[in-house]
Design goal:
Blueprint lengths: L3 H14 L10 H14 L3 H10 L2 H11 L10 H15 L5 E6 L5 H12 L6 E7 L2 H9 L1 E3 H4 L3 H9 L17 E4 L4 E4 L1 H4 L3 E4 L13 E6 L8 H14 E9 L8 H4 L1 E4 L2 E4 L3
Parallel strand pairs: 1-2, 1-7, 2-6, 7-8
Antiparallel strand pairs: 3-5, 4-5, 8-10, 9-10
Helix pairs in contact: 1-3, 5-9
The structure holds S-adenosylmethionine (SAM).
The site of S-adenosylmethionine has 23 residues, from loops.
Length: about 280
């Protein structure tokens, strides 16, 4: 088992030999991932350190791709998506354009979920969606929009919850088929997002630790779900502040189901159920 000192050394060596600085991550998330990487590569800890010090950018990116946790799903936490659909989108529907940023988008299911509800509300055409992540392997999957059917089939239930039901109006029941948005091929274990969605989303590499907005625009909504849990308090507040500065007014921030903003009002947000609305400070 790796010691706390070894994890500190790993983070320090990565920082001085690459663009990646994990110093403000919660350290406990690392040990298991680095141990798994050592097992996969069949090398010991100090060999890993040597290889990082060699500075090969492809190897360093491979390490980063392997130490990030990328769990995601379509319409993760349906209640949150229902709130986005029926509480946030009506407030943005008259905008000329709707810009949405998904930092930490992993393999893209979150961005495609958003596109599907925008399309159901007739807002997709005037929307711009941007997914960013530090994991280049996940971004490649996101661009392809192709997933294992077997591993994603259970999330089609989430689709029904969000697309075919409305908890705010039980009269409203629809019957949108999955085939409107996906090509499904269970024999070859593939569920593929349809081209009209894939072609619209923009997926680029970006590190939130840089505290920059990689796009020359401000956003109506930022979804940063299940990413801040990996950061310490200090980095969390800096990132929340980055979001505050890059949201328009009105603008909305959506975090993971179990995440919150400590002292939200002093950070510039009102909490409304499953999301945060920007307030003028
Ligand atoms: C658990 S996944 C969450 C995916 C999706 N947002 C969701 O909730 O289903 C966390 C993602 O954050 C990404 N991530 C971690 N640190 C990051 C950083 N500094 N900048 C951008 N993305 C980061 C990881 O690579 C991973 O894909």
């Amino acid at each position: 088992m790796l010691t706390a000192e070894q994890i500190k050394l790993f983070i320090r060596v990565l920082k001085y030999n690459s663009e990646y600085d994990f110093s403000d991550y919660a350290p406990k998330s690392f040990a298991r991932r680095v141990e798994k990487l050592l097992e996969d590569l069949q090398i010991d800890f100090y060999e890993l350190i040597d290889k990082i010090e060699n500075g090969d950018p492809d190897f360093i990116q491979f390490v980063v791709n392997n130490i990030t946790v990328n769990t995601t799903e379509l319409f993760r936490d349906p209640k949150v998506w229902q709130a986005i659909r029926y509480r946030i989108l009506p407030r943005l529907k008259d905008n000329e354009v709707i810009n949405i940023w998904h930092p930490g988008c992993s393999s893209g299911q979150e961005v495609y979920s958003m596109m599907i509800i925008l399309n159901e509300e007739g807002l997709l055409e005037k929307s711009n969606l941007y997914g960013t992540d530090i994991n280049t392997e996940m971004l490649e999957i996101a661009r392809k929009g192709e997933y294992s059917y077997r591993l994603n089939v259970e999330y089609l239930q989430n689709f029904d919850e969000v697309i075919n039901k409305n908890p705010y109006d039980y009269q409203h029941v629809s019957n949108v088929p999955y085939s409107k948005y996906f090509e499904i091929d269970p024999i070859n274990d593939i569920i593929r997002v349809k081209p009209f969605l894939r072609e619209k989303a923009v997926f680029v590499k970006h590190n939130l630790v840089s505290l920059t907005n990689p796009f020359e625009r401000q956003f109506d909504m930022i979804l940063c779900r299940n990413v801040l849990i990996y950061f310490n308090r200090n980095l969390q507040s800096k990132v929340i502040n980055l979001f505050y500065r890059n949201l328009k007014y009105p603008g909305y921030l959506v975090l993971g189901y179990h995440e919150t903003i400590l002292d939200a009002e002093s950070m510039g947000f009102f909490k409304h159920g499953y999301y945060f609305a920007k307030k003028l400070k």
